Amino acid sequence: MRILVTGGAGFIGSEYVRMLLQAPGSTGPTDPHLEPSAVTVLDKLTYSGNLQNLAPVRDDPRLRLVRGDICDQALVDEVVAGHDVIVHFAAESHVDRSISGAAPFVTTNVLGTQTLLDAALRHGTHRFVHVSTDEVYGSIDEGSWTETWPLAPNSPYSASKAGSDLLALAYHRTHGMDVVVTRCSNNYGPYQFPEKVIPLFVTNLLDGGTVPLYGDGGNIRDWLHVHDHCRGIAMVQEKGRAGEVYHIGGGTELSNKELTAWLLQACDAGWDRVVPVTDRKGHDRRYSLDISKIRLELGYAPSIDLERGLTQTVQWYRDHRAWWEPLKAGIEPAVAG
Ligand SMILES: NC(=O)c1ccc[n+]([C@@H]2O[C@H](COP(=O)([O-])OP(=O)(O)OC[C@H]3O[C@@H](n4cnc5c(N)ncnc54)[C@H](O)[C@@H]3O)[C@@H](O)[C@H]2O)c1
Fold this sequence. Notes:
The protein has eleven helices and twelve strands. The protein is α/β, with parallel strands linked by helices.
């Protein structure tokens, strides 16, 4: 099986590539026939793409790296040829950046996805896995979204992801393409670019600095370890039904204030290190996914509880200053998402 992973040098895509290549059978595909004979990473290496994320598998002869843009039709056509499966992670992914400027989000997330879908259609790719987000549903005060819930995105980021989800599903309905869509909750874990809330807070605290807490800190997110997310994607890649959407969640909801309290404790810091900042425009109050479908159909359950996952993640950032210090030197200090 030849797998093309777009955005494979980013946070989640690189975990997927490491998982596919490192430990077949245990953490990767459950069906040995689905172990990859080749994995191609197509990545533009934007600010959040980093070849260091692939260092553990760099010497694997099955891995090929192509630096390029998913909007580049000629390149995409050439790269897609010969692959059985596309797992599509490449995206502009940070809500705050989409508020400052939406154009790259529409270009990469919508046009880039359409460019890939067209190439997959031309080349008869067997399966297209489109990786998306719970943010496409907007915000929910009580209860949890099921996969049939109407889409009501509130940020330019989530609107562009909703557009790409609908395009992917339309290629299934219109052309009969084998497309599956996953929507997950907030990911955390190693190799996450330090603009997102957990690595931003942890690295600021490890540096002796302060952390910016949006609004009243009452926004609630479900936290999912990146490895559990990738296990769920692998199950969907192998066994998901064409044309279907599958939720992948972590099962632990925390308010930003609760998360902050946890991170302060893990970094031996107090509330004097927290600086309240004006709330994000259009900030969704709560996200919550119902994951019954993937649990019942594919046997998915999160395996890493939040306390263990956060402890390991904080330790990873303690141990990998050489990875994040150069990245932090180049980003704005007050963004958190
Ligand atoms: N991080 C989360 O909590 C989360 C939650 C839900 C869904 N998602 C989705 O998962 C996917 C991966 O997210 P992530 O957190 O790993 O993001 P990331 O920003 O860490 O990685 C994105 C990768 O895509 C690459 N990329 C960006 N534009 C590209 C282009 N035009 N052509 C080729 N490559 C390009 C970047 O270089 C980077 O390597 C995204 O589709 C995102 O919407 C993420």
